[in-house]
Design brief:
Number of helices: 8
Strand order of the largest sheet: 14-13-12-11-7-10-9-8-15
Strand content: 25-35%
Distance between the termini: 62 Å
Largest sheet: 9 strands, mixed
Number of strands: 34
Shape: globular
Length: about 475
């Protein structure tokens, strides 16, 4: 592989063996890729591929020294950037991957989930990088918003609303949903860290038969969060706004405003049986001034060099295509909700699952339970009512946890463990309210495969319960 300085792709380190790219398609957006990659690599290391000779000539005039071709170039390059109409993405990306190149594809990755899954498999089987240009995941405001979410500044998230409206650009090869909504869907999935369980959408075609000019999309998530996306190329006022509401604060990302990200310390609180609103003011979040497309390009070059997949990899692109496909099917069925996939696990609507939780197929989580961040629950488990898990707890396969059990950090349950009703785990040997214990000092407790713990029993932390042990009721 080529050797480059990770902090500066144009440094002298790569002058002897530079990264070379071909860019397929130099229309409205592709020409921006040409500009950025010429700045990073030098025009002599960029090949522009477009069947339109006037476009090739315009790129050559703007960037003297580039190479041009009327057909795709896959040989003699390290990576391929695909900025052609979406209906061509699958074929061109497949050709590039089979030729041994790393690939950056414009959004959306493909027009169907099956095609996206095939590209993800092909990239993995051939050891290639597959990246999708989900531009807003590299926007300084979205990165800062993600940090606010992850650090708890907004509290538990309730709902998100995204609007992407304007008069034009009106396309004929795809509708407003597939043209505009990939931006919003990718950001919502990025912020929440989970896929929706179902999608419902309504749309309308006024200008061209069968090509929706606008769409209203609702995403429902296993964590009980909800997100709304409104997109239109038939609207009088250009709008690019995302609102995120949590139980502690709210945030607004307005990409057309000078102050792009604002945090509003507003919330609703209940006191003495009544709700009141709290307004502690707003503040502007300071942002880096990096150009998102330049960040995308730098990330792609770094992935080529290090072989480390980017955050907007093929799997990220697949998740977005699944949502778009479900929304399209819902529109075609008059707004009927469409499941993203058959439900692999069940979470009751009264329960809450934090971001960053892994839950295996066939697992059921019943009423009023809470699975906290960083926990992993295996397949075919059952969590009864009022069960707390985590944070950072590992639970194996086929584990049964009855009502009113808390599995705290530091506890590991191996496969086939049974925890009876109201039994108790601990993770501190000397609990003192006046002297809290740092979580790094929690004592580890391991319940080995097949063990049974009876109702109301207490397991003192720092011990291992052996395989198939039987602890009687407390």
């Amino acid at each position: 592989m080529n050797s480059t300085d990770p902090m500066n792709p144009t440094s002298p380190m790569d002058s002897m063996n530079p990264i070379r790219l071909s860019i397929l398609g130099v229309g409205n957006w592709g020409k921006n890729h040409v500009r950025v990659f010429c700045e990073l690599l030098g025009a002599e290391n960029v090949t522009v591929c477009d069947p339109d000779s006037s476009r090739r000539e315009a790129m050559l005039a703007a960037h003297p020294g580039i190479n041009t071709s009327a057909s795709p170039v896959y040989e003699g390059v390290d990576g391929v950037v695909i900025a052609t109409p979406v209906v061509t993405h699958y074929r061109l990306a497949q050709e590039a991957l089979l030729a041994g190149g790393d690939v950056l594809v414009e959004k959306p990755l493909t027009t169907t989930p099956d095609e996206a899954e095939a590209l993800v498999r092909l990239a993995k089987d051939n050891g290639r990088i597959l990246m999708v240009d989900h531009l807003l995941e590299y926007h300084p405001a979205v990165i800062a918003l993600k940090r606010l979410v992850d650090e708890g500044d907004l509290g538990q998230l309730f709902h998100l609303t995204s609007e992407r409206l304007n008069l034009g650009v009106i396309r004929s090869e795809e509708n407003a949903l597939w043209s505009l909504a990939p931006h919003d869907v990718s950001v919502i999935l990025y912020l929440l860290g989970e896929e929706p369980s179902e999608v419902a959408a309504h749309g309308a075609a006024y200008l061209q038969p069968g090509i929706e000019d606008l769409a209203y999309v609702t995403l429902r998530f296993p964590s009980r969060r909800i997100a709304h996306v409104r997109v239109s190329w038939l609207d009088p006022v250009k709008t690019r706004r995302l609102t995120v509401v949590g139980d502690r604060a709210m945030a607004v990302f307005d990409d057309l405003a000078s102050d792009k990200l604002r945090l509003f310390v507003k919330r609703a609180e209940k006191a003495n049986g009544r709700f009141r609103t709290v307004d502690e003011g707003a503040r502007v979040i300071e942002l880096d001034q990096n150009e998102p497309l330049r960040a995308v390009a730098q990330t792609f070059l770094e992935s080529i060099r290090t072989r480390i997949p980017p955050c907007s990899d093929g799997k990220d692109g697949l998740r977005v295509v699944r949502v778009l496909d479900a929304a399209q099917k819902s529109m075609e069925q008059g707004g009927k909700p469409v499941a993203i996939r058959d439900k692999d696990f069940f979470v009751h609507e009264s329960s809450y699952v934090d971001d960053g939780v892994e839950i295996g197929n066939g697992t059921k989580i019943w009423h009023f339970s809470h699975v906290m961040k960083g926990s992993r629950i295996g397949e075919n488990c059952t969590l009864g009512q009022n069960v707390l898990v985590g944070p950072n707890v590992v639970i194996g396969n086929n584990v049964k946890i009855q009502n009113n059990v808390s599995v705290y950090e530091g506890v590991t349950l191996e496969d086939d463990v049974f925890c009876g009703p109201s039994m108790v785990f601990t993770n501190v040997d000397r609990p003192r309210a006046a002297f809290p214990t740092d979580h790094e000092r929690y004592l580890k407790t391991v319940i080995k495969r097949g063990a049974t713990i009876g109702a109301n029993a207490t397991i003192v932390c720092g011990h291992t319960i052996g395989e198939h042990a039987f602890i009687g009721a407390g």
